[in-house]
Amino acid sequence: MRVAFATDDGIRVNAHFGQSPLFAVYNVTKNGGELVDLRKLSDILGQDEAGKIDSRLEAVADCTLIFVMQIGASAAARVTRRKIMPVKVPVGSLIDEQVKRTVEMLQGKPPMWLAKVLRAEEENERGDTDGTHG
Fold first, then answer.
1. Beta bridge partners of 3
2. Alpha-carbon Rg of the chain, whole angstroms?
3. Which residue, 9, 26, 31, 50, has most beta carbons within 10 Å?
């Protein structure tokens, strides 16, 4: 699964979703995680809050989880509507540590929120979008 991290340095989760200048995107499986992409966002002068959120949603559209320092309620609602789960972590959490913890969760018994996300991801891959399974 693809996992994004709101960051300004590519090392720590240290950015608010709506102001994040960069998303470090990793591919995370039971076998480990690897950096896929550093997605830099350019703020358009005069861009309103909705525009900032839209550009960030586009940047992480292929992700299942997004780790953030903070996310506003309306942005969180828009992210979850896109079937992306926002995960708040302490300011300055190392991305490598969060990747490692996510791998460990996948190897063991994932918490209910993650199991639900993974089930939805599997259904999307199979094409079960009518909601009759599960």
1. 26, 65
2. 15
3. 26
Distances (CA, A) of 116 to 84, 111, 126: 11, 9, 15
Between CA 103 and CA 83 the distance in angstroms is 20
* Helices (H), ranges, the chain: 49-59, 73-81, 95-107, 112-126
pTM for the full model?
Answer: 0.87
| Low-confidence residues in the chain, pLDDT < 70 | 43-46, 128-134
Query: How far is residue 130 CA from its own chain's centroid?
Result: 24
Check: CB of residue 22 under 8 Å from CB of residue 69: no
Interval 30-57: pLDDT, tens: 999 999 999 998 766 667 777 888 899 9
Q: Are 65 and 4 in contact (CB under 8 A)?
A: yes
**Residue boundaries of the structural domains of the chain:** 2-126
- The topology under which CATH files domain 2-126 is Nucleotidyltransferase; domain 5 (3.30.420)
